[in-house]
Structures are given as structure tokens and as C-alpha cells.
């Protein structure tokens, strides 16, 4: 580029920057670039304005439900930036069984009070909004079986005691510090409290004998306790906590899946009565030896990546005779890091014929 052309280019860029910066200094109430400046830029730099052929225009909150019949049974409004339940005209929907309002901007659920025939509603989904408090009006939906309040800003569990038919309750990623006010939910089967600020598994769990799945990952729990009445529990997830010891699980005789990754475990123990266990995840702990596993004859998946296992003989002793073992993960352990080229072959030789996958890869793909 010649010096003359370069000077003109620099000058043009400076002029454009000056125009843009002057626009930045406009009064706050003025939105966008004034038409005169748009025309000036188009003329000076050969710029064109191209209209979006398919502009996205969100309807108003009231327009979202205007076309729905009064006897509609399911309303599903996801990602519409809804702020006000009152504007939805819920008072005319007398047959509603499911209301899904995921990924909106609701700060309160008080507008639900206008919904008639509350006993008909079975599913209420308020996932990913801005709700800080559980409205007392939620307690009026006495036939709810599923309630999802995940990804909100809730600190306290309350106003749920009348929901005795509730089977699925989701509070993932809130600001909850204590498990409480759930004692009346005798039919609860699935409780999800992952991603909160819980430090203790409270005595509330003693009153929930029907629970089959309990999800407590990404909290600050340091100890297993108050689980002895969960005779029907099939899935227990307590990943990414502060657990140092596997204990107090003796009564969980129905347990099939146990997720303990990213804790502070140094020893495999406390599994003596878990004869139905099929999946055991102890990824990313500080375990140096496999033990107390050889009796788990139903085990299909053992995930033990990123620990300190250094002996193939130890692997064979504990896992080699398990008839249903299908998948193992040992990457990131000394047995893999010290001899990566022989690692998969040695695992195949030391484990039984049922083995199909090592570290997410089928053994016949190696």
C-alpha cells in the first residue's frame, strides 16, 4: 500500500472512530445511531443497511395465551422473557393439568393464585427464572405430582406441606442451606437438591420413606447421616462434596447406583450390605487400594479414574470375578500413567469376560 493510500485509510478510520465515539456520548434516552449519521457512514465508506428478513419479535405476555382455548390442559411457554404471570390471563384456564414456564424472567409465582380449579394441576415447571421465595399459593395445588423450581434464587424450602401427592421435587442450583419442611411429602420419590449450600443431611429425610432417587451433588456435605429409613432408595448421588468416609449406608439394601466422585475418600468401605449395587462412581478421590468390592456381584459399572490405584493384581483380586462387570474407568491412575501402552491390555487380562468398555471405549476398538 502506498503512503498516500495508507494516510487516507488512517484518516478514514479516524473519522469513523470520531463518529462512533460521538454516538457513544449521546443522551442515555436516545437509542441507536441517528439516521443522519447512518447516511453519512453509508456515503463515506460505502456501507449498506440490510434489514433482517426474519426479525425475531417476542409477543407480549398477554398475546402468548390469547389464542388458547379455555379448556386447554397443557400450557408450555419456554424462553419468552415472561415477567408477569398476571398478564397471561390464567384465570380462564379451568382444565389445566400442566403449566411449564421454563427459562423466563419471573421473580414471583404469586400470580398462580388466579388459576381456577387448582386441584387439576399435576405438573408445575418454573425452572430457570428469578424466583427468590416460594409463593404460599403453590401450596394450594394439592394434586401436584411434579414441581420444578431449579435454577432460581430460593434460600428456604417452605409452603409445600399440603402437596402430599408430590412425587418429583427439583431444587437444583438455588441457595438452599437446609433440607426442611418436607416431612409431609410421604409419596416423594425423586428429590433433587444439587448445586446448593447444604452442609448436613437433615433429619427431614427420616420422614420420607418413599424416596427412590436422592441427588445432593455440589453441596458442602461432609458426612452420611439420616438415611436409614430410605429402604426404597435406588440412586444416591453426593458428588462434589466433602465426604471423607463411606458409612451409614447399611440400611440402603435397594441401592443400585452410588455416585461419590470428587470427594475426599481415601478408602473403599461401608458397602457390605449393598448387594444390588450396579453402578459405583468414586472418580477423583484419593483411593490407593481397591477393597470391599468382590461381593458386589450385580456391579456393571465401576468408575475409578483419577485416584491412586497402582496394582493390576489388586484390580484382579477385587473385580476379576464379578460376573456382570461391563465398564471400568481407571484413567489417571498410576496403572495407566506408568504404562499407557500396556494399560488396556493388562486390564483385559485381569478382568472377566463380561468386560465391554474401558474408559468409555469398547475393548474391540482398541
UniProtKB/TrEMBL annotation:
It comes from Pichia angusta. Residues 1-37 are annotated as: Disordered. PROSITE patterns: LRR (PS51450). InterPro entries: Cilia_flagella_integrity, Leu-rich_rpt, Leu-rich_rpt_4, Leu-rich_rpt_typical-subtyp, LRR_dom_sf. Keywords: Leucine-rich repeat, Nucleus, Repeat. Its main location: nucleus. Belongs to the SDS22 family. Residues 1-10 have a biased composition (Basic and acidic residues). It is found in: Nucleus. It comes from the Eukaryota. This is Uncharacterized protein. One of its GO terms (cellular component) is nucleus.
Amino acid at each position: 500500500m502506498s503512503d498516500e493510500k495508507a494516510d487516507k485509510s488512517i484518516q478514514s478510520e479516524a473519522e469513523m472512530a470520531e463518529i462512533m465515539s460521538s454516538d457513544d456520548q449521546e443522551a442515555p434516552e436516545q437509542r441507536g445511531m441517528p439516521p443522519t449519521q447512518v447516511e453519512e457512514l453509508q456515503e463515506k465508506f460505502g456501507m449498506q443497511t440490510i434489514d433482517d428478513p426474519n426479525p425475531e419479535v417476542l409477543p407480549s405476555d398477554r398475546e402468548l395465551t390469547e389464542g388458547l382455548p379455555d379448556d386447554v390442559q397443557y400450557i408450555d411457554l419456554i424462553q419468552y422473557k415472561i415477567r408477569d404471570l398476571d398478564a397471561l390471563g390464567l384465570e380462564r384456564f379451568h382444565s389445566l393439568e400442566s403449566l411449564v414456564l421454563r427459562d423466563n424472567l419471573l421473580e414471583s409465582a404469586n400470580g398462580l393464585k388466579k388459576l381456577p380449579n387448582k386441584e387439576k394441576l399435576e405438573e408445575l415447571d418454573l425452572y430457570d427464572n428469578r424466583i427468590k421465595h416460594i409463593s404460599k399459593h403453590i401450596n394450594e395445588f394439592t394434586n401436584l405430582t411434579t414441581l420444578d423450581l431449579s435454577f432460581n434464587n430460593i434460600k428456604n424450602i417452605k409452603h409445600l406441606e399440603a402437596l402430599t401427592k408430590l412425587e418429583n421435587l427439583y431444587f437444583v442450583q438455588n441457595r438452599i442451606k437446609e433440607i426442611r419442611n418436607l416431612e409431609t411429602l410421604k409419596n416423594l420419590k425423586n428429590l433433587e437438591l444439587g448445586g446448593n449450600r447444604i452442609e448436613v443431611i437433615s433429619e427431614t429425610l427420616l420422614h420420607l420413606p418413599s424416596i427412590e432417587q436422592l441427588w445432593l451433588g455440589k453441596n458442602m456435605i461432609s458426612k452420611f447421616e439420616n438415611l436409614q429409613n430410605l429402604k426404597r432408595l435406588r440412586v444416591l448421588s453426593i458428588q462434589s462434596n466433602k465426604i471423607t468416609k463411606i458409612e451409614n449406608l447399611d440400611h440402603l439394601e435397594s441401592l443400585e447406583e452410588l455416585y461419590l466422585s470428587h470427594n475426599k475418600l481415601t478408602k473403599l468401605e461401608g458397602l457390605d450390605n449393598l448387594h444390588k449395587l450396579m453402578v459405583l462412581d468414586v472418580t477423583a478421590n484419593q483411593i490407593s487400594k481397591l477393597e470391599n468390592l468382590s461381593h458386589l456381584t450385580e456391579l456393571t459399572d465401576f468408575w475409578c479414574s483419577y485416584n491412586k490405584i497402582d496394582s493390576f493384581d489388586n484390580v484382579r483380586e477385587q473385580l476379576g470375578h464379578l460376573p456382570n462387570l461391563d465398564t471400568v474407568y481407571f484413567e489417571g491412575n498410576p496403572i495407566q500413567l506408568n504404562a499407557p501402552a500396556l494399560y488396556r491390555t493388562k486390564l483385559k487380562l485381569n478382568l472377566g469376560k463380561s468386560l465391554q468398555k474401558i474408559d468409555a471405549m469398547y475393548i474391540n476398538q482398541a
